[in-house]
Amino acid sequence: MKPNLLGSGLLTAAACLCLEMPVLAATAADSELNSEWAVNATTEIAQAPENTYNAWGNECSNLVEQQRFTSAIAACDRAVTLKPDYSLGLTNRCVALLQLDRYQDAVESCRRALTGDGNWGDRTEASGWLNFGGSLILFAGEKPSPNEAIPLLQQALLAFEKSLEIEPANPNTRQLRNELEKLIQDLT
Question: Given 3-state DSSP classes, what are the helix, strand and coil percentages for the chain, each rounded to the nearest 5?
Fold first, then answer.
């Protein structure tokens, strides 16, 4: 009997890694801002002539931290409209989409982040690959059959391997990668 993808516990692990990953502000000065003030100042900040995409990206981060995910997505969309290849904005958008169980959209946002400008804030591209892999696992969990889920899981495995190439000492990514590999073997 083949294991049930949804009952594997892997989805929970992927969700924990992706959804609980802190979303960081792009600069140290921005991180000192009071979150409530930052939300109230969105229009004022975003109208500044320089770094408007950064202002909207920071607003997205603040809104995610406040668990205002629909508003966070709107802020990230604004940032990405201003700078379509903004990796950090697209990653933050991915995290907010995951919180709303919009897995397919999250996969696309993560995919775009990985081909973006390489601005990951205080993180590295490894976090982008980790989010991408987690998004793929969660999206695979929506598929009705293992045959539809396996290609997505295989892509997730490759994403975790890319993340480990960049940050080989990350034990959570390594454990998730190993569990995913076992699941794929069990499903095939």
Answer: 70, 0, 30
Q: Token pair 């975003």 is at which residue?
A: 46
Q: Where in 107-148 does DSSP place strands (E)? A: none
Kindly state the helix (H) or strand (E) to which residue 124 belongs, with its residue range: none
CB 170 within 8 A of CB 177: no
The 3 state secondary structure assigned to 54-99 is HHHHHHHHHHHHCCCHHHHHHHHHHHHHHCCCCHHHHHHHHHHHHH
Rounded distance between C-alpha atoms, residue 24 and residue 176, angstroms? 23
Alpha-carbon distances of 37 from 27, 88, 96, rounded to whole Å: 17, 21, 20
pLDDT per position as a tens digit, 141-177: 899 888 999 999 999 999 999 999 999 998 888 888 8
Q: Are 128 and 162 in contact (CB under 8 A)?
A: no
Query: pTM for this one?
Result: 0.77
